[in-house]
């Protein structure tokens, strides 16, 4: 009888040992990163720092590779309440996640206490001289030098004709191709547009090769920073290296042509502007600055626009009442057009009130960039909690855009919710906020509006798999890349 108790005791001892090891392991990050904070430790936000080295990343990746990405933060809400601010260990650093409109707005607009805090792994991919990592004063200088050629009224007017032409050519071509991956084709279209603006390049092989490199790069940005063969981050680093080599060769070629005063085109593109622009002290951009700006702009300038276009078209097609309302608005714009006018004008774009609501609702519903990173420059108190100096701050856009207190029935696509609506500060952040607001936001909206104008007037979309499952990394997308047929009306 007594011998029969031995296996039970052994099992209990093993279970107890496992529990003890688990408790010790889960406290390692806390001992390493919190013990040195002194009295500040008492005022840290609620949360946990997860496991050693990987922190909470396993839970994050598991959630965003499932059909319920919000389960990651919902677990925090359940365990710690809705405080709007939580501690975690993310992307290799002790971090604080801010999740409400108020807390996100505070962080994004406070350049005195917060600087860019993107993970080192991301900076290695996007570039240490790009907008994501440079200090405030340097950011202000580069933004001042590059904003007019991207978002200025004159620049946008100049881009319109090309965008219209390329959109109409693409739509006509797709309508004759049968089944296509609609998202893939849109990403190629938006990449062609951004390549034209920056490099005047329309070489099909070059564009397809570069677009593939950017796809690989993006998968690495949201992955764990494991630089070993077979992992997404390792492949992304190699893609970055190839992109840098291509851009350096283009810069070298342009410098030779300028030195020899060879005119190869009438149009002056962004590469020309970046090579020639000087600040008030006569300082020009270095090759590294130009390359990192190109890596960033070409990436942001096609990925977000391509995905937003795909979702806007799909969501309108799934809601005929919204589609019809948007279509009628575009027909009215054409009817009011003066005789002899060819193509759209910026004035007409600005008169697309309902289409603008469609775009904003798509941006809210999709939340292409789910998070941006900051770093505390000093100990900062928010909502009664202290963010320690040097800790990363993850501004979680997704929770702002899907907060039912600000957006009733948030998962429902409803452009009419924007009728006479002024969003609460911090509740709508598709392009960020503060001094680091996305520098290409007006260009992105222009592209989207032009495409939807011509699509609504002349085409419809037939989804092959209307109930296709969705993946959320690196961005929200149908797993079949929106397999569909584009039909001419």
UniProtKB/TrEMBL annotation:
Instruction: Summarize where heme binds, as residue positions.
Output: 438
- Which Gene Ontology cellular component terms are annotated? endoplasmic reticulum; membrane
Which co-factor is required?
heme
Record membrane topology: Single-pass membrane protein
GO: which molecular function terms?
Answer: ent-kaurenoic acid monooxygenase activity; heme binding; iron ion binding
Pathway listed for it is: Hormone biosynthesis; Plant hormone biosynthesis; gibberellin biosynthesis
By sequence similarity, the record places it as follows: Belongs to the cytochrome P450 family.
Q: What is this protein called?
A: Ent-kaurenoic acid oxidase 1
Q: Which organism is it from?
A: Spinacia oleracea (Spinach)
- InterPro entries in the record: Cyt_P450 (IPR001128), Cyt_P450_CS (IPR017972), Cyt_P450_E_grp-I (IPR002401), Cyt_P450_sf (IPR036396)
One Pfam family of this protein, by short name?
Answer: p450
This chain's function reads:
Catalyzes three successive oxidations of ent-kaurenoic acid giving gibberellin 12 (GA12), a key step in gibberellins (GAs) biosynthesis. GAs, which are involved many processes, including stem elongation, play a central role in plant development.
């Amino acid at each position: 009888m007594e011998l029969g108790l031995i296996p039970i005791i052994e099992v209990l001892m093993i279970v107890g040992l496992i529990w003890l090891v688990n408790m010790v392991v889960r406290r390692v990050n806390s001992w390493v990163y919190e013990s040195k904070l002194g009295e500040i430790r008492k005022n840290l936000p609620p949360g946990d720092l997860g496991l050693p080295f990987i922190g909470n990343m396993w839970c994050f990746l598991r959630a965003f590779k499932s059909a319920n990405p919000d389960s990651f933060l919902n677990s925090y809400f359940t365990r710690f309440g809705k405080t709007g601010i939580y501690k975690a260990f993310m992307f290799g650093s002790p971090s604080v996640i801010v999740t409400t409109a108020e807390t996100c707005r505070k962080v994004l607009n406070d350049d005195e206490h917060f600087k860019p805090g993107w993970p080192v792994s991301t900076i290695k991919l996007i570039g240490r001289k790009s907008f994501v990592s440079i200090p405030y004063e340097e950011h202000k200088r580069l933004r001042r030098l590059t904003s007019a050629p991207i978002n200025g009224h004159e620049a946008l007017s100049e881009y319109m004709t090309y965008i219209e032409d390329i959109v109409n050519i693409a739509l006509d071509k797709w309508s004759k191709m049968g089944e296509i991956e609609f998202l893939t084709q849109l990403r190629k279209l938006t990449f062609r547009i951004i390549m034209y603006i920056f490099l005047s390049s329309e070489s099909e092989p070059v564009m397809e090769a570069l677009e593939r490199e950017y796809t690989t790069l993006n998968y690495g940005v949201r992955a764990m920073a494991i630089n070993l063969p077979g992992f997404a981050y390792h492949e992304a680093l190699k893609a970055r290296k190839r992109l840098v080599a291509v851009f350096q060769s283009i810069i070298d070629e342009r410098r030779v042509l300028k030195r020899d005063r060879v005119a190869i085109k009438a149009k002056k593109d962004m590469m020309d502007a970046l090579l020639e622009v000087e600040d008030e002290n006569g300082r020009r951009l270095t090759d590294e600055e130009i390359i990192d700006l190109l890596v960033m702009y070409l990436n942001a300038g096609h990925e977000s626009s391509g995905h937003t276009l795909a979702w806007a078209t799909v969501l309108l097609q799934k809601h005929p009442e919204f589609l019809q309302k948007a279509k009628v608005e575009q027909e009215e714009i054409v009817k009011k057009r003066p005789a002899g006018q060819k193509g759209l004008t910026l004035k007409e774009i600005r008169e697309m009130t309902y289409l603008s609501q469609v775009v904003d609702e798509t941006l809210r519903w999709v939340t292409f960039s789910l998070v941006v990173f900051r770093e505390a420059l000093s100990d900062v108190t928010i909502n009664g909690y202290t963010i320690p100096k040097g800790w990363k701050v993850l501004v979680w856009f997704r929770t702002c855009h899907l907060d039912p207190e600000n957006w009733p029935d948030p998962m429902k696509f409803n452009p009419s919710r924007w009728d006479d609506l002024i969003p609460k500060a911090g509740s709508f952040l598709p392009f960020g906020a503060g001094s680091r607001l996305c520098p290409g936001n007006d260009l992105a909206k222009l592209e989207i509006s032009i495409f939807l104008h011509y699509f609504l007037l002349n085409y419809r979309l037939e989804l092959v798999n209307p109930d296709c499952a969705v993946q959320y990394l690196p961005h929200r997308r149908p797993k079949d890349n929106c397999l569909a047929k584009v039909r001419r009306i």
